[in-house]
Hints:
Layout: E1 21-26, H1 36-51, E2 55-57, E3 66-73, E4 76-83, E5 88-95, H2 97-119, H3 122-147, E6 151-153, H4 155-168
Parallel strand pairs: 1-3
Antiparallel strand pairs: 2-6, 3-4, 4-5
Amino acid sequence: MSKEPPDKTADKPGDPSSNRLVEVFLDEASIARCTPDIEHERNVAIYDLLETNYFELMKEGASGPYSLQLALEENRLVFHVGDEHQKPLNSLMLSLFSFKRLVGDYFLLCERYFEAIKTAAPSRIEAIDMGRRGLHNEGAQLVQDRLNGKINVDFETARRLFTLICALQWPGGPER
Length: 176
């Protein structure tokens, strides 16, 4: 008797093949010109999100797969959700206020981390990185909480979305 591997989507409602993002864009007007390193980080975050995600718009008749454009408008984070052909399905606006402290702390730890990797002992680098991961997890939980009842995402998708939310707010970006 062979055992089937457990279904990792068993706790997620709906069809897992349609409850996913197939395209993700950052609104060009919302992001600042940046260094090649920062641009690379944004591209990696989008690639990772598209590789593995669970995303389900909780709106009657709005089934996936989905496209997503993240934008900043009037101090709000906007999720423009479309179908796989980018036909608009829904837009959701969230206040950036609830993310402000976490994003600021995350940027501060990122700066410390990048400075530490130049000269600090490995134990110091690891401690800073653990703090950074903890803030990232807190950010993912906040994303899930703020999207609750509107968009269902799993924890890893929420972590990747938090990365993109940070990318939109990278210091030096457009005035908010």
